[in-house]
Amino acid sequence: MFAVTILGNNSAIPTPDRHPTAQVITCNEQLMLVDCGEGTQMQLTRYKVRRGKIRYIFISHLHGDHYFGLIGLLNSMSLLGRIEPLTIFGPPELEEILQLQLRVAATVLRFELQFQALLPERTGLLLRDKDLEVSCFPVKHRIPCYGFSFSLQRRKRRVIPEQARAYEIPAAYFSKLQDGEDYLTKTGSVVKNDWVTLPPARGKRYVYCADSIYDEELIPYLQDADLVYHETTYLADLHERAAERYHSTSVQAATLALRANAKRLLIGHFSSKYTELQPFLDESRPVFANTDLALEGATYIL
Ligand SMILES: [Zn+2]
């Protein structure tokens, strides 16, 4: 299972039915949180996400709508008895902010909080955990900001049944072939694994672009991704305002997905000034047909 669940799809100011940015990535048994706007823990409860299973949190930048929910979530995790360590990746000042918030409240978390600072000179691979790889890349916004790329690697080789049968390899042995083992025949000769299998299928990749001005330098990071999340704070007519504020429009997000040959696009971070979201789709789809709105509570499977 590799999926993204949207907890918040709005920009700066929350509305009664749209929350600031937060997403949960499910990677097999593992959960990760990407950004943590105000209200995230209520959204986790509403959509029955098991917060105790969150192992990693990624904060793209320090505009409040991307992290104001963090201290509350950490506090609740501790009150609920969490003891498993938690790793947060974010801009270095975030660690100071959290430490101050904890210190003035004389709060000692029951679990170990590991902090990994994101720095412009240290982009690239952030972590490798089982079949999961996460890397980060810089995006252009008003303050330092990072996008994240999540990829689920496939390790199993693909058996070619006709080939395997030609060497009289029993089907019961196929799982070992998938793990890369050779086969020893009854007569003692070796059937090399790569005679009867193909390399593992390509892994799936989800790319989260955070808050960003329209920037074609992002294309290499999005290239051929299975799913891309790109912000669309504004509709196309406000492209000048979008550029001034280092945000993007519906048409710009779709254009980037198209140029990067992405398979699918999710759009979000809608300005509170819009009550209807349909116009975002109406503007994006003519440019990039496979676009969906990031809807709160919805899970998008890769
Ligand atoms: Zn921002």
From TrEMBL:
Its needed co-factors are:
Zn(2+)
Looking up Gene3D superfamilies in the UniProt record yields: Ribonuclease Z/Hydroxyacylglutathione hydrolase-like (3.60.15.10)
Does Calcium show up as a keyword for this record? Answer: no
Catalytic reaction annotation = Endonucleolytic cleavage of RNA, removing extra 3' nucleotides from tRNA precursor, generating 3' termini of tRNAs. A 3'-hydroxy group is left at the tRNA terminus and a 5'-phosphoryl group is left at the trailer molecule
Keyword Protein transport in record? no
Enzyme Commission code(s) on record: 3.1.26.11
Q: Name the keywords, alphabetized.
A: Endonuclease, Hydrolase, Metal-binding, Nuclease, tRNA processing, Zinc
Record note on cofactor: Binds 2 Zn(2+) ions.
Residues the entry annotates as binding Zn(2+) 1: 61, 63, 141, 211
Q: Which family does it belong to?
A: Belongs to the RNase Z family.
Query: How is this protein named in the record?
Result: Ribonuclease Z
Which organism encodes this protein? Chitinophaga chungangae
UniProt gene name: rnz
